[in-house]
Amino acid sequence: xxxxxxxxxxxxxxxxxxxxxxxxxxxxxxxxxxxxxxxxxxxxxxxxxxxxxxxxxxxxxxxxxxxxxxxxxxxxxxxxxxxxxxxxxxxxxxxxxxxxxxxxxxxxxxxxxxxxxxxxxxxxxxxxxxxxxxxxxxxxxxxxxxxxxxxxxxxxxxxxxxxxxxxxxxxxxxxxxxxxxxxxxxxxxxxxxxxxxxxxxxxxxxxxxxxxxxxxxxxxxxxxxxxxxxxxxxxxxxxxxxxxxxxxxxxxxxxxxxxxxxxxxxxxxxxxxxxxxxxxxxxxxxxxxxxxxxxx
Length: 296
Prior knowledge:
Elements: H1 5-36, H2 40-44, H3 58-64, H4 67-99, H5 106-115, H6 123-132, H7 140-143, H8 150-161, H9 165-173, H10 178-189, H11 191-206, H12 210-215, H13 224-232, H14 237-244, H15 252-294
């Protein structure tokens, strides 16, 4: 089928636009990666671009030998795994009954749940509630308040609705309970949606720093992103000096300049793990999000 001139022009525009968008999105990451393996003098002189200058990995060596980073790494992994598991379980348990046409009051519950997308109690009432429940300075203050994302639950509900009713009816005739139908029929057919939404939840937990900042008073419980914030934004000299001890820097001028290299290296260390996970679930994204958003 021959393409029209307008169609060709549209495709050319799309290609150019996507190339420019990719450059805009990739440049900051590549620049940070380049600075993290460049010499401090080159960074201070502004000579570093997308290609490293004065290649060295001293900053990474210092980070590897810094116990606080590894402790916060462990905390982040723990919060991410636990939080994502709770998110998925609660989201599936909420989405399944709302997807059933025979669920009495489904429309009312859907409206009530949707209201939470636009209105909330606010930061102070939430803090007081968490403190009153005895969750302050515990992991539950991080993973329970956001146990369900309304948008993700609606996407999963719509995905469940796209599964033929005949499969559920056949299982019920064979004596399966509602929970057995969910576990043995619905969930195995909903892997794309579950993987996609699970990735959304996991990235949210991995990048979370504000709830830990509010609800943790014990520094040993800090996640990686909060430690990163202290180093990069707050310019925490104690953290920087502790890492610099692993770089064996004696000159004060070099120590000040090496702080910039350390900041870039810490940013890379915090971003790489989630980037490594993404390719394994990327294939589910289009199918999981699109089917869950257009079928009704």
